[in-house]
């Protein structure tokens, strides 16, 4: 499938200054679900820009996510995350990987639902644990029982992922290439009506 075929069926709308706003693709799911890796592959397949909210925050703050957590706490990190999500979700046609906890804020869920197509990358707790157990860049997993923590986080967050998802894809042990190939036709048949950000909508206060 080429980019034109997706754009033509993705409910593109008129955006600021009469330009065509191509609905972004938002990837949501738990840490370790593959949002960054799959997002990059999907962006390449669609010839689109890829952004990762966590990487945007790290570039702007000059430190890794765990350091932001350490210095400002989770509440401080979440405020920065919401601002970055607001800004990135205004970009026409972007493929955007969100943080695993981005769905916790109602404001974030509303932005994702209104501005683009939401793909939930679903995985079981055991699979997520296997993918993240050696990753020290996950502040919420720095605990004596990371599998238990993942299980609890998944229990809390899965209803929120499902609430805003337009498409649900089980990642399992499938390769990235096959997952991208599975998602592309699903996007092509998604006829969601997207509300582009208003031209006069002010950005959230910058931190």
From TrEMBL:
Which Pfam families does the entry link to? SKI (PF01202)
Q: Which residues of the sequence carry a binding annotation for Mg(2+)? A: 36
* UniProt xrefs under PROSITE patterns: SHIKIMATE_KINASE
UniProt entry tagged with the keyword Disulfide bond? no
At the top level, the lineage of the source is Bacteria
The positions annotated for binding substrate are 54, 78, 100, 157
InterPro entries listed in its UniProt record: P-loop_NTPase, Shikimate/glucono_kinase, Shikimate_kinase/TSH1, Shikimate_kinase_CS
Q: Where does ATP bind?
A: 32-37, 138
Enzyme Commission designation: 2.7.1.71
Q: Which reaction does it catalyse?
A: shikimate + ATP = 3-phosphoshikimate + ADP + H(+)
Q: How is the cofactor bound?
A: Binds 1 Mg(2+) ion per subunit.
Gene Ontology molecular functions:
kinase activity
Class of this enzyme = transferase
Gene3D superfamilies attached to this UniProt entry: P-loop containing nucleotide triphosphate hydrolases
Record key words, sorted = Amino-acid biosynthesis, Aromatic amino acid biosynthesis, ATP-binding, Cytoplasm, Kinase, Magnesium, Metal-binding, Nucleotide-binding, Transferase
Which cofactors, by name?
Answer: Mg(2+)
What compartments host this protein?
Answer: Cytoplasm
User: What coarse category fits the chief subcellular location reported for this protein?
Assistant: cytoplasm
Q: In which pathway does it act?
A: Metabolic intermediate biosynthesis; chorismate biosynthesis; chorismate from D-erythrose 4-phosphate and phosphoenolpyruvate: step 5/7
Similarity-based family:
Belongs to the shikimate kinase family.
Q: What does this protein do?
A: Catalyzes the specific phosphorylation of the 3-hydroxyl group of shikimic acid using ATP as a cosubstrate.
Q: How does it assemble?
A: Monomer.
Q: Under which name does UniProt file this protein?
A: Shikimate kinase
Gene coding for it: aroK
């Amino acid at each position: 499938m080429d980019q034109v075929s997706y754009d033509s069926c993705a409910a593109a709308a008129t955006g600021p200054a009469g330009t065509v706003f191509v609905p972004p693709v938002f990837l949501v799911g738990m840490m370790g679900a593959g949002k960054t890796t799959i997002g990059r592959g999907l962006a390449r397949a669609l010839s689109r820009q890829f952004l990762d909210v966590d990487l945007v925050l790290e570039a702007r703050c000059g430190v890794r996510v765990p350091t932001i957590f350490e210095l400002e706490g989770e509440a401080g990190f979440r405020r920065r995350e919401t601002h970055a999500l607001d800004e990135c979700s205004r970009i026409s046609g972007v493929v955007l990987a969100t943080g695993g906890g981005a769905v916790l804020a109602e404001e974030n869920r509303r932005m994702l639902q209104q501005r683009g197509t939401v793909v939930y990358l679903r995985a079981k707790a055991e699979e997520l644990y296997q993918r993240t157990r050696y990753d020290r860049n996950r502040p919420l997993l720095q605990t004596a029982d990371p599998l238990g923590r993942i299980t609890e986080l998944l229990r809390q967050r899965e209803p929120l992922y499902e609430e805003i998802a337009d498409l649900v894809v089980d990642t399992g042990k499938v390769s990235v290439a096959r997952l991208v190939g599975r998602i592309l036709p699903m996007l092509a048949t998604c006829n969601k009506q997207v509300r582009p950000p208003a031209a006069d909508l002010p950005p959230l206060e910058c931190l």
